[in-house]
Amino acid sequence: MAALISDSGYDPIELHEVELLDTLHAATKDVTEDAFDAFERRLLEGAFEIIAWRRRGPAG
After folding, report:
1. What does the pLDDT look like over 33-48, one tens digit per residue?
2. Cα within 13 Å of Cα(50), Cβ side
3. Could you give the percent of the chain with pLDDT greater than 70?
4. What pLDDT is attached to residue 46?
5. How far is CA 54 from CA 4, 15, 18, 59, in A?
6. DSSP label at residue 1
7. Is residue 5 within 8 Å of residue 11, measured between CB atoms?
8. What is the C-alpha separation between 48 and 42, in angstroms, rounded?
């Protein structure tokens, strides 16, 4: 499995990423992918940007 991921050009997924996917999956289990509109996608992107900013710190 790791070799397949490595060959795809992606890094292996981390446990905290799996936990985020589980949370998203639970919240959207009855929603199809095409049901996400531009606002919802931007809202999720913004949340992840805030998390990254907090982990890096304001100067990062």
Report:
1. 667 788 988 998 898 8
2. 6
3. 72
4. 92
5. 32, 19, 20, 10
6. -
7. yes
8. 10
